[in-house]
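pasting for the record
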Amino acid sequence: MSTNKISPWKAILAYAVWWALLIVLETYALQTTFHFSWIVALTDALNINLLIATAGYIMFNSLRYYQPSLKNAFYLVIWSIVLAILCVALHRYLMANYFFKDNIDYVTYLTNSHAIRGLITWLMIALIGVLSWMWFYLQDQQAREKHEEDAVKMAREAELATLRQQLQPHFLFNSLNSISALAGSRPEEARKMIQQLSDFLRGTIKRDDQQLVTLTEELHHLQLYLDIEKVRFGHRLQTEIERSDATGILLLPSLLLQPLVENAIKFGLYDTTGEITIRIITKTENNHLVITVENPFDPETSQSKPGTGFGLNSVQRRLYLLYARNDLLSTVLNGNIFITEVKIPQLA
């Protein structure tokens, strides 16, 4: 939505220039057509145009506080007629009784042109009224659209915050259960895991207000998560991260990779007893940062658990809220490898 606004001083200047131009043209027309002196012509043009300009200003300000609908547009017509009658009557009174009451030719011209001058005056005031109505109508529309956009933006940001917060309890509960289990048999590892969990949560809190972060920052935070998971699963969980230096500065939504990797761990590790390797591959493609997460998957042993699909659904929803696209997350099963791919547009 365009929010460009004309400066009030520029509008006033343009209004003044418009009436100055009309005064010059009307003065010239009266001199050349009716052969009045330039003093008579200029006084007549100044008087009537200043009256019309004042009426137009009154019309403009009245519409600032009351804008009739299309059904009540006749109010504009009535108001413009009243102002036109007042302008013409005052103009005739001043010119015929104060300025040029002894100029018979001018008074005769004033009397004979009364009707046509009234019509032209009404048309000009009506035009100002219509333009003023359109001006304030568009201003109201812009204000209404901005209010709606702000409301949508606030709702979107609230939903994004909710989605990020909902990811933490799943991981936190699992970590606390693991710490509880390790406390009796392996207290050193339990203490280590507590410290790692503290570092991870501290980093998460610091990033709550960050919408986008670099891939390097995201992978550093992901490593804190993986260190905790490796304490839980030991040698059974192996990870490989492949990335080029060029992708390190590319941007992505903060805390986006954790739910993808958590999903890979759930499907690849929960119902197996052997060692698995989760691969994370990053590359650039068509001005997108492409992130692929691969994990082994055996449909005969891997059982879906309540809430298992929440991570991918939340990622897809976040991507839609941020980029208004539903094609940025895809999954495919290639043999016994489950592949999740995310594309992050790199905005200029």
